[in-house]
Amino acid sequence: MPSTKVIKNRITSVKNTKKITNAMYLIASTKMRKVKTELDLARPYFDIEEREIKRIFETKSNVDSMYFYPETGRKPAENYAYLVVTADKGLAGAYNHNIIEAAEEEMRRHKNIKLYVVGEYGRQHFHKHKIPIEKTFLYTAQNPTFRRAREIATILLMEYRLGNVDEIRVIYSNLKSGADSEVVVQKLLPFDRADFGGKPKAESRFNHDPDDKGEDYEFYPSATSVLDNIVPSYVAGFLYGALVDSFCSEQNARMAAMSAANDNAEELLGELSIEYNRVRQAAITQEITEVAAGAKAQKKKRLREAAKNE
Q: Domain total for the chain?
């Protein structure tokens, strides 16, 4: 049985660890609120871009762009580019593991893949397993900004325009309503016209203007040129949203992990407190027993000395 000193040291250690995990919980919560606010401020700009793309397809029926699937003769993709967004560190539950698992599943499905990685965790994982990476973005995943998203978009769009890749996909973790997250494998390019046309479509990342009735407009020098100029900025906006979603999901996972660590620390402190009281009580009982035994021995000694004197 450990001594009271050993148990007290363990209690102190657990309390210090609990202070750290509680601080990490509060920091993660603050970071998540801040970056969400920044995305909300930028969102109207991307709303307008999406509405303009929608307006083009509603106005012109024969727009041809390299960024969109052709209306006929669509070919299956052969070369893929994957942007994998991970965290820079652990202590976030299964956040990184789930993203890596989704990326490896995609690599098993497709042979010709180019990996573009954001986040130190992903870089270290792929290097460790000798999986080639086309490019790693060395800035951290802890500070998602539109400037960084635009840099990533420029590189990916260049590969796409040169014909080195047929399809671009993004693997990231999306924070849904509440506290649930899910790993998303989202096709970025080429776009499907139905996503922007007047036909029923799946919910998009950015909201649409319900008042946009699709009036007739003139585009200069052409609708295709206008569309090709809008798409790069829209792609950067999509990537910025994905980076922010990933960051928020990471912070949410870290908050959940730190909350669980705090709960475990409280439970451990309760168990250690009970053990400390038990050991302390046993020590007190032992001391009382030793004192009583000593007093009893002294009494016997005095009785023997008194008997000899008689």
A: 2
Q: Which of 229, 219, 211 is nearest to 49 (CA)?
A: 229
Tokens of 199: 């036909």
C-alpha dihedral over 233, 235, 239, 242, to 10 degrees? 120
Q: Which contiguous run of DSSP H or E holds residue 56? A: helix 4-59
| pLDDT tens digits along 70-125 | 766 677 778 888 998 888 776 666 778 888 888 888 888 888 888 898 888 888 88
Region of 183 please: left (phi>0), alpha (psi -120 to 50) or beta: beta
Q: Is the pLDDT of residue 210 over 70?
A: no
Strand ranges in the chain using DSSP code E only, listed in sequence order: 80-85, 113-118, 135-137, 167-175, 181-189
**DSSP secondary-structure letter at 167?**
E
Whether residue 270 sits in one domain with residue 235:
no
User: And the tokens for 282?
Assistant: 């046993």
Structural domain span for residue 9: 4-19+262-309
Could you tell me the pTM of the whole model? 0.70
Q: The CATH number of the domain where 143 resides is what?
A: 3.40.1380.10
Query: Both 290 and 196 in a single domain?
Result: no
In the chain, helix, strand, coil percent, each to 5? Answer: 60, 10, 30
